[in-house]
Design goal:
With 448 residues, the protein is α+β, with helices and mostly antiparallel strands. It has 13 helices and 18 strands. β17 and β18 form a beta hairpin. α2 crosses α4 and α7 runs antiparallel to α11. It is elongated and about 110 Å long.
C-alpha cells in the first residue's frame, strides 16, 4: 500500500519501504504552495567514511572539551550563558494579540486548560530539555532534539536532547545535501564507530523542509532527530560556535599557560627567592680531606649543606628565623663563607597579572558576555562592578538572545502541529528583566 502526501510530491510504499519523490504534484495543488525545494549546496565528500567527520579527526567536541576544562573561566561562563538563555524556563499559553507597543500579549495557560500539553510537558521534562539544549548551543552551536512517536504514530509522545558530542551525521546525499541519519555513540573518543554495538542510527528530519509531512511519510521508525543550530559561515554539517576563535587565536593557550607557569614558580620558589654563594675555601676549611674526596662524596656533602639552608629559609616555616653567618681566615684575610642574595620576588608584584587580565577580556568578548554578569572584573583589579552596569548588561544580553530561544522552542511548535493541538497555543521562554528600584517592581517577568 502506498502513502502519498497531500501535495503529491512524495509517496511511500509500506510493502517495499521505497520512498518516491515525484517531482510533480496534483493538479489541485494550490498555486501558493512551493514549486520546488530550497537550494542546498553540497560540499564534496572526502574519504570513505560513512559519517561526516566533526573536525579533521572526528574528535572536535572531545578535543575542545579537554582544552576548555583546563581553563578557570570558560566552563562556568558557557554554563552561565545557557542559564541566562533559560531564564525562568519554558511556559505555554495563548497569543492574545499585541499591545500599543507591538509587544505580544501572552496569556499563560491555566492548569487543566490543555491537558494533553500538560501531560507532554511533564512526560518530556521540558525544563530539563530546554537547559540541556541551551547548554549544547552555548558550547557547540549545535543541539540534537529527539522526537519519540506514539505506537500508533498519531502523536509525538516525548521530546528529549541527545548529547551533542555523541552525535555524528551520516554522509550528506550527493544531490540534495540532506543527512539521512544521526549516529549516536558515546565512544567516539575511544575509537567508536557508526556501526559498532554502541552506535544507534536515528533518522534526521530536515528543518528547512516540511517536517510534519516528513514524519507522516515515514513508517519505519518511532524516533527522529530534529537538529537545530546557530548558523556559521561555510558550515554545512556541524556549525562552529563563534567563541571558538579564542582557541584559534591562541588566547586560550595564553590564559592556560599563566597558571601553569605560576604553579611552577610557587613549587620552586626557593631557587627564585635566594642565591647562596659559598666561598671555595669554605669546603677546604670545614672538610680537611676535601681534596681527596670522590665526586659522589662531595655531591653528598653539598646536598647536606643545602638541606641546612632549606631548614632555615624555605617555605613559611622559615619566617622569622635567623641565619648564622660563618667567616673564615684565608691568607690572613677574614672572609664570609656564605653570601646570601635575595632575588626580587615577582610573585608578590603580580607577575603576568596584566596578561591574565587581557586573556580573560578576550574570552568574555568571544563569548559575548560582559564580565560584570559574572560578578567580577577579572585580573588585578577584581571587583563586583556597579549594580546598574550589571542590570544594563543583563537586559541587553537577554534582548539579543531571542534567536537562540526560538531555536529551542522550534521543535515544540513542530510537536504542536503534528499532534493537532490548538494553533493559538505557543511556547515561550519566561525571561526575567531586571528593573530599577524606582520603576516599581524590582523584577519584571516577560516572555519571548
Amino acid at each position: 500500500m502506498a502513502t502519498v502526501n497531500k501535495a503529491g510530491t512524495m509517496a511511500f510504499s509500506t510493502r517495499s519501504s521505497v520512498m518516491m519523490k515525484t517531482n510533480t504534484g496534483f493538479s489541485g495543488t494550490k498555486s501558493s504552495e512551493a514549486g520546488d525545494v530550497p537550494t542546498t549546496s553540497v560540499q564534496k565528500n572526502e574519504g570513505s567514511s560513512a559519517i561526516e567527520f566533526w573536525g579533521d579527526d572526528n574528535m572536535f567536541p572531545q578535543n575542545v572539551r579537554k582544552e576548555v576544562e583546563k581553563n578557570t573561566i570558560l566552563p562556568t561562563v558557557l554554563q552561565r550563558r545557557a542559564e541566562f538563555w533559560y531564564g525562568g524556563g519554558i511556559v505555554y499559553g495563548t497569543l492574545e494579540g499585541y499591545d500599543s507597543n507591538n509587544n505580544e500579549i501572552f496569556k499563560r495557560a491555566q492548569p487543566g486548560q490543555f491537558p494533553e500539553v500538560d501531560l507532554f510537558y511533564h512526560r518530556s521534562k521540558l525544563n530539563r530539555y530546554a537547559f540541556e539544549g541551551f547548554l549544547d548551543l552555548s558550547w557547540w552551536a549545535n543541539t540534537f532534539p529527539e522526537l519519540i512517536l506514539s505506537r500508533d504514530r498519531k502523536k509525538i509522545n516525548k521530546i528529549t536532547i541527545q548529547e551533542a558530542p555523541y552525535c555524528r551525521y551520516s554522509k550528506a546525499d550527493k544531490k540534495t545535501g540532506a543527512f539521512k541519519y544521526v549516529y549516536v555513540n558515546a565512544n567516539w573518543g575511544e575509537g567508536g564507530r557508526h556501526d559498532d554495538e554502541y552506535a544507534t542510527p536515528v533518522h534526521v528530519l530536515d528543518p528547512y523542509a516540511d517536517p510534519v509531512e516528513d514524519l507522516q511519510s515515514h513508517t519505519d521508525s518511532f524516533k527522529y532527530i530534529y537538529p537545530v543550530s546557530v548558523p556559521s559561515p561555510e558550515k554545512n554539517a556541524y556549525q562552529l560556535a563563534s567563541w571558538n576563535s579564542i582557541r584559534r587565536s591562541g588566547w586560550l593557550e595564553v590564559a592556560q599557560a599563566i597558571p601553569e607557569f605560576k604553579k611552577a614558580l610557587f613549587k620552586n620558589q626557593l631557587t627564585i627567592k635566594y642565591v647562596v654563594e659559598v666561598h671555595a675555601s669554605y669546603w677546604l676549611w670545614k672538610y680537611k680531606d676535601w681534596e681527596t674526596k670522590t665526586d659522589d662524596e662531595r655531591r653528598r656533602i653539598i646536598s647536606e649543606e643545602l638541606d641546612e639552608f632549606d631548614k632555615v629559609m624555605a617555605g613559611t616555616d622559615g619566617a622569622g628565623k635567623s641565619i648564622l653567618t660563618t667567616t673564615i681566615t684565608v691568607d690572613g684575610e677574614t672572609i664570609a663563607a656564605f653570601k646570601v642574595t635575595a632575588i626580587d620576588d615577582k610573585l608578590k608584584t603580580g607577575l603576568y597579572i596584566e596578561d591574565s587580565q587581557e586573556a580573560s577580556s578576550h574570552i568574555f568578548t568571544a563569548l559575548g558576555l560582559a564580565p560584570t554578569l559574572m560578578g567580577i572584573s577579572p585580573g588585578k583589579g577584581m571587583g563586583a562592578g556597579s549594580g546598574s552596569d550589571a542590570r544594563v548588561a543583563f537586559n541587553n544580553f537577554i534582548s539579543t538572545s531571542k534567536f537562540q530561544q526560538d531555536l529551542i522552542l522550534e521543535p515544540l511548535h513542530l510537536v504542536r502541529d503534528y499532534n493537532g493541538w490548538d494553533q493559538s497555543l505557543v511556547f515561550r521562554i519566561q525571561n526575567p528583566l531586571i528593573m530599577t528600584l524606582d520603576a516599581g517592581q524590582p523584577v519584571q517577568q516577560e516572555t519571548k
